[in-house]
Amino acid sequence: MIDLNVRAAARKSLCSMSAVLLLLFSLHSFLLAQVEVKLPEMSGRAGSEIRIPLVVGDLESEKVTGFEFVVSCDTSIIRFSGVEQSGTLSEGLAMFANNRVAPFHTGRMKVVCASAYRISGNGVLVRIVAVLAKKAGTSPIVLSDVVLNAGKPEARTINGVVRSKEAADVKQKRRGDTSRHAR
Length: 183
Description:
With 183 residues, this protein is of the alpha+beta class. The chain folds into 2 domains: 1-32; 35-166, Sandwich (Immunoglobulin-like), CATH 2.60.40.
C-alpha cells in the first residue's frame, strides 16, 4: 500500500515538474519571438521639419518581408507628412503611407510595406517625416497595430516623445553648450 502511494506521489510530482518546464520553455520561446520596435525621445525647433526614426531590433533570423504600423500624435504640436526610406533597412522596398484618407490624417498615419526580399539587420526601419507646430509643446508619438510579416515575430513597441521648442530655447541651449565647452 505504501509502495503505491509513493509511486502515485512521484508520478504527480513528475507531471507537475513537466508542466512547469513546458511553461518555462513556452515563455522563453515567446520572448525570443519578439522584436523591439521603438520611437525615440527627440526635440526640434518650432516650425521646422523633422525625421523621426522608427528603430527595430534584430530581424536577421526572422525572415521579415513586410510590416505595417499606425503612428499617432497631438496635431497641435506635430503633423505627419509622410515617410522617408533613404538610408534605412526598408530602402528600395514598396511602401505606402496614408495620412490623408479617413480615418487617417496628419495626426494619425498608417504605413504599409511589402516586399519579396527579406529585411535583415537592426536599426532604422523607416523615418517618419513631420512638421513641428510654430509653438512650443510636447507630444507623445504612439505606435499601434504594429505587424511584422503576418504577426510572426511579434512586435514589442516602445512609444516616443517629440518636443517642439521655441527658436530662443534652441539658441539658448546652443549658447549654454558652447559656454560649457569654453571653460
